[in-house]
Amino acid sequence: MKDGDFELIDPPVLSRGVMDRDEQLRFDVDYQRRTWSQARLVVVDENGRTPVTWETRPEATFREGDAAAWDAAAGSGGSVITRAATTLGEEPPSNAVLLGAADGIPYWAVRGKPDLLAGDDPSEWADLRAAGAWLDELGSGLLTVSVAILNWHDMAGFCARDGSPTHPHIAGWARKCEANGHEEYPRTDPSMICLVHDGADRVLLARQPVWPEGRYSVLAGFVESGESLEACVHREVGEEVGITVRDVRYLGSQAWPFPRSLMLGCHAIGDADIPLNPADGEIADALWITRAELRAALARGDWAEKPADDEQKVVLLPGKVSIARTMLESWAAQGD
């Protein structure tokens, strides 16, 4: 292993799916109908929320997407609450998506909302960005793929080739257009996310203008058409903070279905003595901090507030649901 090289100490939290995603079952209509009476249903509303139960409930009920509050006060042992598939009828409807199977049980996903008449409690519904880090492996995988595939269906109602309406096909894993039978498949947008360090004891962090004051993370950007992952790292780092990097190494990946990204985690070495030049309008600030300073930020906890008597810049880190957090924790764990 080269100097400065490291690996992720844990898998990213949204990469823990345990389902068998057998593609052949998507074509097997007989299987789908035969197992429908045993199947379970993941219901996701238009805001990406689904009902969740907890071994230890969060200390409070938080507004949608309030990842800061969830990271500070979330419970433990979260599980997605599923429904009997037969609540939709005697066989799979056209708008349901076959997610896969776990322990012999098929799981499907549909758009829906709390059913007050059936006893649903809207306060139990949580979204992936806020609660994803606290879900068990099955729940994390179910909600991640459900949000991703249903987001795609919401935006793929018309054929990109002839403009005619499209309809779900192959158990929800494709859409077919009315005019010419063109098939379209779920789209994923690859994005690099790179932890830049100096090969020794300093790591580069940056913040976007729209983020809360003090919140920093690693650099990220979308891979362009015809571009390799490594080329994207070099280009994005140069564009965002004005430095060059070397020794780009792959770390791991995580789905980020907001609405349909795949985060490809890397690390690379940069020269901490070269002045940073944050991109105007894209990067509000960028800075190098030491491994000890990063460890102190991690020890303060997620989204910690700056003490009133503290004149130093306090770094607030991304929440546990992000692969960025896993990357930072893994780099901080290296060295003395």
From TrEMBL:
Its EC number is 3.6.1.22. Its cofactor is Mg(2+). The keyword Manganese applies. Residues 186-311 form the Nudix hydrolase domain. Keywords: Hydrolase, Magnesium, Manganese, Metal-binding, NAD. One of its GO terms (molecular function) is metal ion binding. InterPro entries: NADH_PPase-like_N, NudC-like_C, NUDIX_hydrolase-like_dom_sf, NUDIX_hydrolase_CS, NUDIX_hydrolase_dom, Znr_NADH_PPase. It comes from the Bacteria. PROSITE patterns: NUDIX (PS51462), NUDIX_BOX (PS00893). The keyword NAD applies. PANTHER family: NAD(P)H PYROPHOSPHATASE NUDT13, MITOCHONDRIAL, NUCLEOSIDE DIPHOSPHATE-LINKED MOIETY X MOTIF 13. Belongs to the Nudix hydrolase family. NudC subfamily. This is NAD(+) diphosphatase. It comes from Pseudonocardia sediminis.
